[in-house]
Amino acid sequence: MDEIFMLAALTQSRKAMPECLPNPPVGCVIVDAQEIVAQGYTRIPGKHHAEADALQQIQGKAFNLLKMYVTLEPCSFHGRTPSCALAIAEDRRIHEIYVSILDPDPRNNGQGLDILRIAGKTVNVGLCANEVNAFLSQYLRK
Q1: Residues β-bridged to residue 98
Q2: Pairing mode, if any, of strands 35-41 and 66-72?
Q3: Which one is catalytic: 51, 73, 90, 96?
Q4: Is the pLDDT of residue 142 over 80?
Q5: What pTM value is reported for the model?
């Protein structure tokens, strides 16, 4: 099932194009008990990233032990928008995160994952990496 959810996140990432540019087209899904409860993708620059888009959809709803699937490592830094990694770290309902590929941007490059791990989240990296990398690699800052 994990692959199905990551491929659903990849489908979301395709919806971001071309409006999200120059940001990478990231997709995210949030799952409760093997059912997608929220989906998101990166919006126009200055608006929600994929993770924040999905988190907004579950705002105020009672969930426990949610899983998040995101195509690219959540951002660790505050730019035009707040850090997605910090937002996920602060959400006590999200307990496990699947990240397909690391963000090679030097402002990230593993730092988003560190924030999540320090917050006690279970972090899994590499799910559907070939499929996601084939789509996302051309949009990543190296």
Answers
A1: 69, 124
A2: unpaired
A3: 51
A4: no
A5: 0.96
